[in-house]
Design a protein that fits this description.
Blueprint lengths: L13 H11 L8 E10 L2 E5 L6 E4 L20 E8 L8 E3 L1 H17 L4 E8 L3 E6 L2 E6 L16 E10 L4 E5 H10 L7 E10 L2 E6 L2 E6 L20 E10 L4 E5 L9 H4 L1 H6 L1 H16 L27 H30 L22
Parallel strand pairs: 13-15
Antiparallel strand pairs: 1-2, 1-4, 2-3, 4-5, 6-7, 6-9, 7-8, 9-10, 11-12, 11-14, 12-13, 14-15
């Protein structure tokens, strides 16, 4: 008996099988974040299994927000993690992936959160330039303008020094991360200061509108209208740079990093700061105590005055009367100073970005990489 092999026609060709694979194949798009497993580690990159017909590739420069020398510093064989699809398939059907891009997005999200919380962060200076100093925050490169560095050291000596910092600007779209050392110091100092307190300071700068006084490493403004009850044409007629003087704190603005000072409120008699400043300094604590008592009394409701009517008929407390210190003039002048500083800082940041951006990006890169924190700048 002869065995005859029976051929069964199942009606399923190689073309049908390929079509079926295509039908159930995932569609990957640049910008997607997908899971993948490390399939093979190579000297300058790694192959990643993402469920596509061809293994995807991640080059070493896309493995971390920081500079690395070898892929195994970040990836291990058979490790599964998230990857960002950087480019579409090449002619071989291979996608290019990135971890760095995910770290960038999460770093910007974190610094925005820190800014919203008005947090103070600490970071080590890794470089300086003509305009200021460079630090890293959450892996991103940040810039401290020279006007916001509060130290007598040369900028070059700040490298490798850790500084407390506050956020001035966080703008992912414009690749700008700007910080202030001065504002962090002012806030820390303010936590130990009180309005009405007498402090000893040194005159560090004289301007037509007032004197800048160093009090324990932070600068306060002694406005010309707060030097004396007598008229003063210029602060130079009363002070010299490096003079050590006593001043009283009349306002603390932590949000804007401002300390307002006065010697006028310490005068035993109007004009003593011009005629006999030593007498003012000798009696400073006594006059400050009287000032605090006067401010306290002004903050209390008057017993002989009827309470002002309120909508619900209940009594309301009399508003506190603030001391008159030509606030409109002072505010305008300080605003001018802050505006100039901000403009100078912005100009400097633009210069840093323009001069330190690499001339060319890696060929695998198809999307704009934020200049701030670029590992190629390390």
């Amino acid at each position: 008996m002869v065995n005859q092999q029976q051929t069964i026609d199942i009606g399923f060709t190689h073309e049908d099988f390929a079509a079926l694979l295509d039908k159930y194949d995932y569609h990957f798009n640049p910008g997607d974040i997908i899971p993948g497993t490390v399939f093979s580690i190579e000297p300058r990159g790694a192959l990643i299994d993402i469920g596509a017909k061809t293994a995807a590739y991640i080059p070493i420069q896309e493995m971390s927000i920081n500079r690395i020398d070898a892929p195994d510093e970040v990836l291990q064989a058979d490790e599964t993690r998230e990857f960002f699809i950087l480019t579409d398939e090449n002619e071989d059907g291979q996608l290019t992936l990135s971890i760095r891009r995910i770290e960038y997005m999460r770093a910007w999200e974190r610094v925005r959160q820190l800014q919203a919380e008005d947090a103070t962060v600490r970071s080590e200076v890794f470089a300086t330039n003509r305009g200021g100093a460079l630090v890293r925050i959450e892996g991103l490169r940040g810039f401290i303008p020279g006007s916001h560095i509060s130290t007598r050291k040369p900028k070059e000596d700040l490298v490798a020094e850790e500084l407390p910092l506050k956020f001035l600007e966080v703008d992912e779209d414009r690749n700008r991360l700007v910080l202030s050392h001065r504002r962090a110091l002012v806030e820390r100092k303010m936590n130990r200061l009180e309005v009405g307190e007498v402090v000893i300071g040194a005159v560090r700068g004289l301007k037509p509108y007032g004197a800048f006084i160093d009090i324990g490493g932070v600068s306060g403004l002694l406005h010309i209208s707060e030097i004396s009850h007598d008229h003063i044409d210029t602060p130079h007629s009363v002070f010299n740079v490096n003079d050590e003087i006593k001043v009283m704190i009349i306002d603390l603005d932590a949000e804007r990093g401002r300390i307002s000072l006065s010697t006028k409120q310490l005068e035993p008699e109007p004009g003593d700061m011009v005629k006999n400043p030593d007498l003012v300094y000798d009696k400073a604590e006594e006059m400050a105590a009287k000032y605090r008592e006067k401010m306290f009394q002004k903050s209390q409701p008057r017993e002989d005055a009827p309470p002002p009517p309120s909508i619900n008929g209940s009594a309301s407390v009399e508003a506190v009367e603030e001391p008159v210190v030509e606030e409109a003039v002072a505010e305008e002048l300080v605003e001018t100073v802050e505006t100039v500083e901000t403009a100078e800082a912005a100009e400097t940041v633009e210069t840093v970005e323009a001069t330190e951006t690499p001339a060319t990006e890696p060929e695998v890169e198809t999307m704009e990489v934020p200049v701030v924190g670029d590992p190629e700048q390390n």
